[in-house]
């Protein structure tokens, strides 16, 4: 029985062949044309970040993967996704427990109470952001009052001197200034390009001018959408006191250190141990139990913060509100420029439509005149057809009859033509 079964079985492959075939099957992509393995590595791989220290203002380039950054800043993955260059998200400013996530045009960074982690890029505005932030931190550490020129050579900061705001708001201010300067520069460039094109289009309507204006209008719509999103984001922050209070990272860090200090003193007096736990534990190296303990103490810290006077809380929120309001005015001015340009484009389109309607009316008028003239000429054909019939008329015997027929037919045609013109002019001048 075994002899009958053996020939029916396929020959067994060698070990090397089976190993190579299994490896080939393992490496074979499931979907042709999509490299999912590389996409997964890009989404979870190491990225280059620029770190700016709050105390010294020094910057350094560091390679950090996504999970380490999540533990370092205590952020969920959905917040880091906003900074991922693989995705395109609108401008966003988020206040979290230990960080502020900023996604404003080219500036994509994480602001904490001790540092700024900026996604490394070759864009000029990113480098200007780092240089400007370092300059302001050095000026603040040296005690000089900031009155500089800003990122775009503008009028400097929005509020007060360097000691007026905590570190996270200085970093946020530079990011807002960079975004507003970038958008305003693009709006000014679009204005310089669009207004001459519109003026040229009103004087000469051509396919080339229409195409150039169409491209300018497309750029205007896209830029207006981006400016509107930044404006709405700033306005939403100003309207929510809770979001603004959540962004006071330095104050929350100070309260947490004071809270841990009180706990360490209580632990020392109760147990007699000399170990201090006043220093906060880094989220990178802290175990999950300590992080859960820190989360449970958030309610206690919120109660501790609510014990402060309402005037002080209102004053602190007003500091951030004044900062946001200053750049809200700037971005609103940029939006007004784009709105004025859009209105000018709409007026130009209306003017062109009026011109086209006028040309269309002239063509209709010419067609009516040509039709009337054709009708007058047709009268001669009718008369010729009548006289061309096969019957005898006494008028044929008169030598001057042909001339009188032409004269009478021509006079009748002129009268009919004048009547048509008078009727057309009368209907144009008089309302229906």
TrEMBL record:
Region: Disordered, residue numbers: 1-26
Pfam families: MRS2-like
Main location: membrane
Coiled-coil regions listed in the entry: 213-240
Segments crossing the lipid bilayer: 368-389, 401-424
GO MF entries: magnesium ion transmembrane transporter activity
The organism's place on the tree of life at top rank: Eukaryota
Keyword Magnesium assigned: yes
Membrane topology of this protein: Multi-pass membrane protein
Protein name: Magnesium transporter
Top-level taxonomy: Eukaryota, Viridiplantae, Streptophyta, Embryophyta, Tracheophyta
């Amino acid at each position: 029985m075994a002899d009958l079964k053996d020939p029916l079985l396929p020959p067994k492959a060698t070990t090397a062949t089976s190993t190579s075939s299994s490896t080939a099957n393992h490496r074979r992509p499931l979907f042709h044309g999509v490299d999912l393995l590389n996409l997964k590595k890009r989404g979870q791989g190491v990225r280059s970040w620029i770190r700016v220290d709050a105390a010294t203002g020094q910057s350094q380039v560091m390679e950090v993967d996504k999970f380490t950054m999540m533990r370092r800043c205590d952020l969920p993955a959905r917040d880091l996704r906003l900074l991922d260059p693989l995705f395109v998200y609108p401008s966003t400013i988020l206040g979290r427990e230990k960080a502020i996530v900023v996604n404003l045009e080219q500036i994509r960074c994480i602001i904490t109470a001790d540092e700024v982690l900026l996604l490394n890029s070759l864009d000029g505005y990113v480098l200007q952001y780092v240089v400007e932030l370092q300059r302001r931190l050095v000026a603040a550490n040296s005690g000089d009052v900031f009155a500089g020129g800003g990122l775009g050579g503008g009028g400097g900061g929005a509020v007060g001197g360097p000691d007026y705001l905590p570190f996270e708001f200085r970093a946020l201010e530079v990011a807002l200034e960079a975004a507003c300067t970038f958008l305003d520069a693009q709006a000014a460039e679009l204005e310089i390009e669009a207004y001459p094109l519109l003026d040229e289009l009103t004087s000469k309507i051509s396919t080339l001018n229409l195409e150039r204006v169409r491209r300018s209008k497309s750029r205007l719509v896209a830029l207006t959408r981006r400016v509107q999103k930044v404006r709405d984001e700033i306005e939403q922050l100003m309207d929510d006191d809770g979001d603004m209070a959540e962004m006071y990272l330095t104050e929350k860090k100070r309260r947490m250190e004071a809270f841990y200090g009180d706990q360490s003193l209580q632990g020392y007096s109760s147990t007699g141990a000399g170990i201090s736990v006043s220093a906060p534990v880094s989220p990178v190296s802290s175990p999950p139990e300590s992080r859960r303990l820190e989360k449970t103490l958030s309610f206690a810290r919120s109660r501790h913060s609510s014990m402060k006077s309402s005037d002080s809380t209102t004053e602190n929120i007003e500091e951030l509100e004044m900062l946001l309001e200053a750049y809200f005015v700037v971005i609103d001015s940029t939006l007004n420029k784009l709105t004025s340009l859009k209105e000018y484009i709409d007026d130009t389109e209306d003017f062109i439509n009026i011109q086209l309607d006028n040309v269309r009316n002239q063509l209709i008028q010419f067609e009516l005149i040509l039709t009337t003239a054709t009708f007058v000429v047709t009268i001669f054909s009718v008369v010729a057809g009548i006289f061309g019939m096969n019957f005898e008329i006494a008028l044929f015997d008169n030598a001057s009859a042909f001339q009188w027929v032409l004269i009478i037919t021509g006079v009748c045609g002129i009268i009919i033509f004048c009547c048509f013109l008078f009727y057309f002019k009368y209907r144009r001048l008089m309302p229906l």
